[in-house]
Write a structure and sequence with these properties.
The two termini are 47 Å apart. The longest helix is centred in the middle third of the chain and has 20 residues, at 210-229. By secondary structure, the protein is an alpha/beta fold. It is globular and about 90 Å long. It is 53% helix and 8% strand. The protein has helices spanning 14-27, 41-52, 138-149, 155-164, 169-182, 186-198, 210-229, 236-243, 253-256, 259-266, 286-298, 317-328, 334-352, 361-376, 389-400, 404-422, 427-442, 446-463, 469-484, 488-505, 511-524; strands spanning 2-7, 32-37, 64-65, 83-90, 110-116, 128-132, 303-304, 313-314, 381-382, 386-387. Helix 13 (334-352) packs antiparallel against helix 14 and helix 19 (469-484) packs parallel to helix 21.
């Protein structure tokens, strides 16, 4: 098995090189191509699990497979398929512990490509070759700019621009796109760049030299200012702000065209010019969003791939971070606007989440929710409204796709965060405890789950009252786990009492009442559903 590690600082084009290589080997006949956002261990595990469980499709950015169903640990082993796994943006070597594709499948022509900003011995090995990726040389930068800008620009101007931008490929791409789209000279761009650089200070960045930090941010500002003036005017920055809190490795365009996102973007249009009926004529629809994405793509601010499945929009980590930090840094309005952006993104993710996950969309949405959670800090936690529902949907959804251990970890983390923000008696803290106990039972620890639900029930009755719907659901969950643990008679009696209370409080046709009736019926059936052989009926999802 061939493993190559592309190592270098941000902005030098590691991911672009990996993508170009992936496209080439796909065209040459690689049968399984898996692109993994490897910034976190959870992301790696989730991508592997989704690939293993989804016949006919590989996980990750490409979404491509000529023959599916083989999990990453055994790629090609049974059928001799050549394959490629790309682990993009590894940030901690320990995240890959036990997750390197095994050398035993090398006969299948397996290859692994890693991109990382790290140069650590932990990523090296006898079967791994590290390739250092740096900034362009002067000759490479001159050649790149000449190809992008044409042969009429004097060599001295090309060399001067390359030097101004520190020979950084990302910044050179930004500059070339700006010059072409604005139809200005190389000298004019250099003047604008110099003016901004003289007066500019930027937040710290832990993987770029000081000079490159300023260059990337100023090049970004010039590009986004120009993109914002291109029709449809006024929306480029707003769209990029939404992108900046989501997963830079891949965002479904449907997130940005969902009703919450369209409503948010409409608010950024110029003041309305009422139509003949006096109604507000402003509207942002899917076609308008697509136009804005093409504008951002032409300015090299994003990569907009209409042919990709679910991961149509990608953005470089440096642009991703520069956008977010500039939003937060806005005088007075920054924190408020950032919270609005974070909530809009969360609403959009939740709106398009499929009720039943049949392909990689769920995994992509989880990756985006995780990125949003990390980027937003406390913005998704409010003392008045609690934690955003997207967080309560993403964590249990891991279990719904068979990743029970990952679901327990995610639900436990969410409980710890709710406990920190809201205290032990907040409804969201109780809800997150419910999810931890539920997946504990699904993992096989039914006695532990029953005990956890018993303790939770006491707290729900004390805090919420005996007739609160959450309390009733917790009673049902406790009864179910008691039956799974072997107490069939106790579970049956508990469901009998619960059914009467559900009918009294919620009514006979309420979903929770119907679930309780089904569980009672399962317990009465020969073989005893409550004793563990009947049909599992889930009592709650997300918040109880």
């Amino acid at each position: 098995m061939l493993t190559q590690v592309l190592a270098g600082m941000g902005g030098v084009g590691k991911t672009q090189l990996a993508a170009a290589y992936a496209r080439r080997v796909w065209q040459q006949g690689v049968q399984v191509l898996v692109w993994v956002n490897a910034a976190t261990r959870d992301g790696i595990v989730s991508a592997y699990a989704d690939h293993r469980g989804t016949p006919g499709a590989a996980a990750g950015r490409s979404g491509r497979s000529r023959a599916g169903g083989a999990g990453v640990p055994g790629l090609g082993r049974d059928h001799g398929w050549p394959w490629l796994v790309v682990l993009d943006d590894v940030q901690r070597p320990k995240d890959l512990s036990g997750l390197w594709p095994p050398a035993a499948v090398s006969a299948a022509g397996g290859r692994v490509l890693v991109t990382t900003r790290l140069r650590e011995a932990a990523l090296a090995g006898a079967d791994r070759a590290t390739v250092g990726i740096g900034a362009f040389t002067e000759a490479e930068a001159r050649s790149y700019l000449a190809a992008k800008l044409g042969g009429q620009v004097p060599v001295a101007e090309l060399d001067g621009l390359a030097a101004d931008l520190g020979l950084l490929p990302l910044a050179l791409a930004q500059a070339a796109a700006y010059i072409s789209n604005a139809a200005i000279s190389c000298a004019a761009y250099r003047q604008r760049l110099a003016t901004r650089l003289l007066a500019h200070s930027v937040p710290g960045e832990d993987y770029l030299p000081d000079g490159h930090r300023r260059i990337v941010t100023v090049a970004w500002e010039l590009s986004i200012d120009h993109a914002g003036r291109v029709a449809p005017a006024g929306l480029a920055r707003a769209v990029l702000c939404l992108v900046s809190v989501l997963d830079p490795a891949g965002i479904p365009q449907s997130v940005l065209t969902s009703p919450p996102a369209l409503e948010y973007l409409t608010s950024y249009l110029p003041e309305p010019a009422a139509d003949a009926s006096g109604e507000d004529a402003r509207v942002v629809d899917e076609a308008v969003v697509d136009e804005v994405l093409r504008v951002l793509h032409r300015h090299s601010l994003i990569d907009h791939d209409r042919t990709a499945t679910h991961r149509e929009i990608r953005v470089h980590q440096l642009i991703h971070r520069a956008t977010r930090e500039n939003l937060i840094a806005l005088p007075e309005l920054g924190p408020h606007l950032f919270t609005e952006v974070a909530h809009t993104a969360a609403d959009a993710l939740l709106r398009i989440w499929p009720p039943v996950e049949r392909d990689q969309l769920g995994q992509v949405l989880r990756a985006n929710t995780s990125a949003l959670h990390k980027a937003s800090g406390t913005a998704l936690y409010s003392p008045d409204t609690g934690a955003h529902r997207a967080l309560f949907h993403a964590a249990p959804s891991l279990g719904d796709t068979g990743q029970v251990t990952a679901a327990i970890t995610a639900c436990t983390d969410l409980h710890a965060t709710c406990l920190q923000h809201f205290g032990s008696d907040h409804p969201d803290t109780l809800a997150s405890r419910h999810n931890v106990a539920r997946w504990r039972g699904r993992a096989g620890d039914v006695a532990g789950a029953a005990a956890a639900f018993e303790e939770l029930l006491a707290d729900c009755e004390r805090v919420l009252g005996p007739d609160h719907p959450h309390t009733l659901i917790t009673r049902g969950s406790w009864a179910y786990e008691r039956g799974q643990a072997g107490d069939a008679a106790g579970a049956a009696a508990a469901f009998e009492e619960l059914l009467a209370d559900c009918e009294r409080v919620l009514g006979p046709d309420h979903p929770h009442t119907l679930i309780t009736r089904a569980n009672r019926a399962a317990g009465r059936a020969p073989g005893g559903g409550c004793g563990g052989r009947g049909r599992r009926v889930r009592g709650a999802a997300g918040r109880p």
